[in-house]
Structures are given as structure tokens and as C-alpha cells.
């Protein structure tokens, strides 16, 4: 699996009756791929996955699989939990969809197992997964930091294709990891405002909720860094970073849903508790930056 380009972690749109608006989901998925996204991510944080019932999760993956099949696009599915045994089971269940090309597996949250435990967790999963794993490193959500040395060891595991790196900035571990990557191990940005910075350092793409908006520009930014159009990449990067920061002014995906609803792309801006809808000010601020 070559992780490169823009991957869209889809929101889960809800209808007035609270059910998933599967047609709107399909439209969002199709539009992103038409605008140049390399693939879709189903059941990410952006999908409010923690608040979806099992049958709803299956319905979401079905829609994404259908669209990816039509377009021969990559499909990465969020799988796993804080428990190694349960995560292995969730990974094995992905065999049900031949369209699934990868699994996004978060560093175990809440348990705070130490970096040795994180390594043992992914070593066990790498032996059992039917598809390549993308490690999701997001310490501000998991409570578990993973340094460059451990990330490199994860990158050497067979069946670990890359990391979605979301550490809330560009820190020393990020710079040192990107300076010396294991063969075939990709770094994808997972913190939207730092997408351009990570590409400049050698990242190959991103999994970016804000790419629901102006997907084509995120794709253009990736191409600009890849082809060495530095001035263009910097300008575009600054512009998109400001827009992304605005999307994340309130908990993800509340602002994003407000904007997509204002654009008429989803039937409601509803989110499920404990999320509450974004304020109108945040939505309008983002609309002004598009
Ligand atoms: O669902 C995802 O994948 C993403 N989640 C991040 C988060 O909500 O913290 C943001 C990122 O853009 C993609």
C-alpha cells in the first residue's frame, strides 16, 4: 500500500429524523474522489464513530465501499480500540469488504500502556491483520505519546504502512522521524493546520477532515510540494491552514457540519451527544475563508 495524497475522513450526515443520511454520505464521498482525493476514510473520529451503532457503522462502510469500488479508490477503515484482542477481532472483520485497502488504528487510548506497550500492541495486530495498518498517533486524544524512535520501530513492522501523525504541531519528534523513515513507511498529516508543514518536511499526504471543503485545493497543495513549486505551495498552504484552523475552532466535526449544511450538501448540521452543534459565528467565520 502506497499512502500518498489526500484522504477524506468522511463525516456522518444525519437526517431530520436522526438517522444517517446515506445519500448525502454517498454524494460527499463521490465529490471528494471526483475532485482528486486518493481515497476515503470510513469510521474516523470525524465520523462520530463512538456514537454510531454497529449496524450504522456497517451501513457507512457499505456506502464507502460502493463508491471506492466504482472509482478504484483506496478505502481505509477505522478499526480497533484500547484492547489488543478486541482490535485484532475488529481488523479480522474487515475481510468482509474486499474494497478495504487499509485500517486506521489509533494508539490505545486512556489505558496509557507506555511506548513498549504500544509497540507490543501493534506487533500483535500486525501479525493478524488482513490489510495494512495506518497507526493513528494523536496524543491529545489518547493520552499516550509515541516518540520518533518507537514510531520508527512501528514502521519496520510488516503490515504497518504508515502513520497518521497528529501531535498538535511540528515538534522535535516529528522532524526527527521525517528525517529518517523506515523503508516504505509513510507519514500522513492528521492535524489539518499543519498539513503543508508536514508535506514540506517529507510527508506524503494527509487524512484531513477539512478537505471536505475545497478538496481540489488540498490536492493541488500536495502536488505543488511534490513538484517543487515552493512559492505556490507556501501561499496555498497558508491559506488552507487558516481555513483548517477555523474548521477546528470547535470540536470536530461540528463546524464542518455547520458549513456543509449551510452549503446545502447535508440535510442537517446535527451531531450526536456529547457533541453539540457549533455556534453560528464559527460556521460563518469558516464560510468567509473558503
Ligand atoms: O477522523 C479523522 O480521521 C480525523 N480526525 C481528526 C480529529 O478529529 O481529531 C482530524 C483529522 O482531520 C481527521
From TrEMBL:
Active-site residue list: 136 (proton donor/acceptor), 164 (schiff-base intermediate with substrate)
The organism's place on the tree of life at top rank: Bacteria
InterPro entries noted in UniProt: Aldolase_TIM, DapA, DapA-like, Schiff_base-form_aldolases_AS
E.C. numbers: 4.3.3.7
Gene3D superfamilies hit by this protein: Aldolase class I
Keyword set includes Isomerase: no
SMART domains assigned: DHDPS
Listed pathway(s): Amino-acid biosynthesis; L-lysine biosynthesis via DAP pathway; (S)-tetrahydrodipicolinate from L-aspartate: step 3/4
Any one GO molecular-function label of the UniProt entry: 4-hydroxy-tetrahydrodipicolinate synthase activity
Catalytic activity annotation: L-aspartate 4-semialdehyde + pyruvate = (2S,4S)-4-hydroxy-2,3,4,5-tetrahydrodipicolinate + H2O + H(+)
Broad enzyme group: lyase
Cellular compartments annotated: Cytoplasm
GO cellular component: cytoplasm
Record flagged with keyword Amino-acid biosynthesis: yes
Family annotation (Pfam families): DHDPS
Site positions (Part of a proton relay during catalysis): 45
GO annotation terms (biological process): diaminopimelate biosynthetic process; lysine biosynthetic process via diaminopimelate
Keyword entries, A-Z: Amino-acid biosynthesis, Cytoplasm, Diaminopimelate biosynthesis, Lyase, Lysine biosynthesis, Schiff base
Residues that hold pyruvate according to the record: 46, 207
Subunit note: Homotetramer; dimer of dimers.
Role this protein plays: Catalyzes the condensation of (S)-aspartate-beta-semialdehyde [(S)-ASA] and pyruvate to 4-hydroxy-tetrahydrodipicolinate (HTPA).
HAMAP family membership: DapA (MF_00418)
Entry's family note: Belongs to the DapA family.
Designated name of the protein: 4-hydroxy-tetrahydrodipicolinate synthase
